[in-house]
Amino acid sequence: MVVLGSLHGIPSPPLVQGTTSSSSSNSQDSTNRSLILARRRAVVFGSTSLGIASLVNLHIFNSKPPLCHSAAAEEDEIEKEEDRIVHVFQITSPSVVFIQDLELAKIPKSSSSDATLIEDENAKVEGTGSGFIWDKFGHIVTNYHVVDKLATDRSGLQRCKVFLIDAGGNSLYREGKIIGFDVAYDLAVLKVDVEGHELKPAVLGTSRDLRVGQNCFAIGNPYGYENTLTTGVVSGLGREIPSPNGRAIRGAIQTDAAINAGNSGGPLINSYGHVIGVNTATFTRKGTGVSSGVNFAIPIDTVVRTVPYLIVYGTPYSDRLASVELLKFARIGGIKKKLQKWLQMLLAIQAVLEDAEEKQLTDKAVKLWLDNLRDLAYDVEDMLDEFAVEAMRCN
């Protein structure tokens, strides 16, 4: 605009009269030529300046400041990250269950487990926890301390109520029966009857390749609020935490993803929705019960090594030999029942192995678990032979 204002201020040359002498005429001609030249220069300069100004103004008008581009790109990244977390939660949460520990007011008359949970309206909720679906047969993995009252119950009044969602999105609840537990690793396996329903087992990852700083997410039911997601990072690896029997659980994962009462037994997952640990413990601020942000999970590699033995034997590997010896000397009635149980378990294992071979699974953690299952299948076959021989001797 300064350039345009200067251009308007240039005066036009005066008209020249032709009544002067030749010397004056020559002088006047020279003056006129100078003025005309000056005008031409001014016009040329003004035109050039006007063009430059127009181009500059056009560029400023049409371009956005670099900060706008940076802010827009940052918003896009935030939106993509949020969408990814939402997707991870949506595909993982159907595999997470809500567990209630109940104490019945009296021993129920009905033998039906579902009727038991419905009939006794005076049942007292003694605790809550979380867990996740291990396989399509209804096995649920959780912490031992979530179901320890049921595991040690001698009154017949303790029950475990499991709320879950099937693959079709239908909500249901069933009574959970303890299949096995390992106090040393604070792990337990429940079994629910899901006949007529298809379950969505959690996808297992691996904990051996974890790095501090990786994103992780905890899904559970803190204080009874179902399907709660908390986010954080892997804060540390190789930690030691106490187990319910006082021994140390080594190799625990530390995270700042919030874990509160009711989160225990739920999955700690990575950015792909794969389970990398079982949420177990938290340090709380003294006198408040509020999480301090220092939370721990049992690594999934430890869980993968332990759970198959709990499903098949009901006890950890370290106690297996003692269990087998006790079973060998059971009476004929008990032997037949055990024989039927082990046969059903063998068929279930074989079904899982056949299904895995058809799907051609390549995940390392899954392969390790399948190898353990194959070993267990061989052990079960040996035990079936021993039971059959023992049953024949008793007859």
Automatic annotation (TrEMBL):
InterPro entries: Chloro_Bact_Ser_Proteases (IPR051201), Peptidase_S1_PA (IPR009003), Peptidase_S1_PA_chymotrypsin (IPR043504), Peptidase_S1C (IPR001940), RX-like_CC (IPR038005), Rx_N (IPR041118). Gene3D superfamilies: 1.20.5.4130, Trypsin-like serine proteases. It comes from Hevea brasiliensis. Residues 326-394 form the Disease resistance N-terminal domain. GO terms for molecular function: nucleotide binding; serine-type endopeptidase activity. Residues 19-31 have a biased composition (Low complexity). The keyword Nucleotide-binding applies. The keyword tRNA-binding does not apply. GO terms for biological process: defense response; proteolysis. Belongs to the peptidase S1C family. This is Disease resistance N-terminal domain-containing protein. It comes from the Eukaryota. Residues 12-31 are annotated as: Disordered. Keywords: Hydrolase, Nucleotide-binding, Plant defense, Protease, Repeat.
